[in-house]
Automatic annotation (TrEMBL):
It comes from the Bacteria. Pfam families: MS_channel_2nd. InterPro entries: LSM_dom_sf, MscS_beta-dom_sf, MscS_channel_2nd. Signal peptide: none annotated. It is found in: Membrane. The chain crosses the membrane at residues 15-43, 64-83, 95-115, 136-158, 164-182. Residues 187-254 form the Mechanosensitive ion channel MscS domain. This is Mechanosensitive ion channel MscS domain-containing protein. It comes from Leptolyngbya iicbica LK. GO terms for cellular component: membrane. One of its GO terms (biological process) is transmembrane transport. Keywords: Membrane, Transmembrane, Transmembrane helix.
Amino acid sequence: MWDAYLSLAVENPALFWTIFVIALSTLAILLGQIVPWLTQLLLRRFLKEDAKTFYSRVVQPHRFLLTLTGAAAAFDIVAWILLQGVWYVPWYPTLEFGLTLALSTVLGLLLFRCFQTYFNEYLLSAALEGGRKTNSELLLVGRFLAIAGLILTLFTLFAQTHRINIIGIFASLGVGGIAIAFSAQKVLEQLLGGVVIYIDRPFSVDDYIGLPDGTFGRVEAIGLRSTKIRTSGKGTLAVVPNSSLIQATVENFTGAKKVMAIVYLNLYRSVGEEEQALIRQVILESTQDIFGLDNRSTNIAFRNLDGGRLTQVQATLFILGATGSSMEIRRQLLDIANQKMTERLKSYGISFDIEEPTVYVDSPITI
């Protein structure tokens, strides 16, 4: 049968390679199904008791990507054994480059998704348990640097395994960059300013901002070289270089707002003044470590329901204005603080139900 298959490669190459690809893909998929089991086995070896919890919370949500990565790795390895070891196929190096690139891409996506889940499930909780103010912007920068390091590591490994002179590439880019920098210094400063604005996000399109020179208006567009501001009153369009904006004190009036988070706790009985004071203290202590939370505005109200047999606690918290991923991280930190608050109240023997989800309401600040 094997000789007949090999003779098919000479008589009908197209049919031969079609059968080869289908058989190899089927084998790769079957081997890929084993990868989740191997991952759990390795986690049990290194993480001991926490392996099952870690796998279910971090890896299990991305099981499809894990299986796909295993299938891609199996396809690459078996193809290398057959096409390079058993049969020598001249065009295999080109095929191997594409296979390894696909494997690196899927692996990078898997690690990226797993890291995001790990960041949300573990690092945010650890930050709050540290007992210090949790700076959401610092967490955001740390997540960005970790992801950038992951991408750079995968790119470096891919380049080294395929004999790509990565040092030479960076050196060439460095020499070329120096030459360009001298010839277009001002333009580069403006372009880099645009990159800083896109990363730091001090303002967005449609935000009202004020500059130290008296310019005040609505941001109409943010370009790589300059930002266009429609001035209030006159209606003229001010074109401000991005390099000037990143060095100036920009006052964002649209960002002057709070997001009001309302949490409801339903107790199964009425509570006295001493228990109310305890509940108020637990709520304040559980939320005081969140950076960006206006503790001075926190309001905790008690209401009697069902003729005084039940008590409802309304905790109104205010998250200071932030945009994009930073606000999302602050909301996640608040959810973790709610879990801590729940555990502490139950440890005091106070039974209750917490209404889901937390209500978020934009609360503009009067300027």
